[in-house]
Design brief:
Elements (H helix, E strand, L loop, with lengths): L6 H12 L5 H8 L3 H15 L7 H34 L4
Length: about 90
């Protein structure tokens, strides 16, 4: 997997592309990236700026953390459920 480009580099390339002073293909060639990569960066920048619908990086991180927390709570709940069932079997009937 190729090493990711620094965020500052990506911001600079997107800023140049948004000026519409040259075709996307030429800008990509000049910066040494593929045209598809530049299109992806532009799309992500539009999502981050709110001009295009989608999940921003901050929202994605928050969602990822929430899913981890939910998974942990479900595991804890399952452990408690099994423990309750185990101890309920050992109690003598009244």
């Amino acid at each position: 997997m190729p090493k990711p480009f620094p965020a500052e580099f990506r911001r600079d390339v997107v800023a140049v592309a948004r000026k519409h002073e040259a075709p996307i293909a030429q800008i990509a060639r000049e910066f040494g990236i593929s045209e598809a990569t530049l299109h992806n960066w532009l799309k992500k920048a539009d999502i981050e700026d709110g001009t295009r619908p989608g999940v921003s990086a901050a929202e994605a991180a928050e969602l990822r953390d929430a899913k981890k927390r939910i998974r942990l709570l479900e595991q804890e709940n399952e452990i408690l459920r099994r423990a309750a069932a185990f101890f309920a079997r050992e109690l003598p009937p009244k």
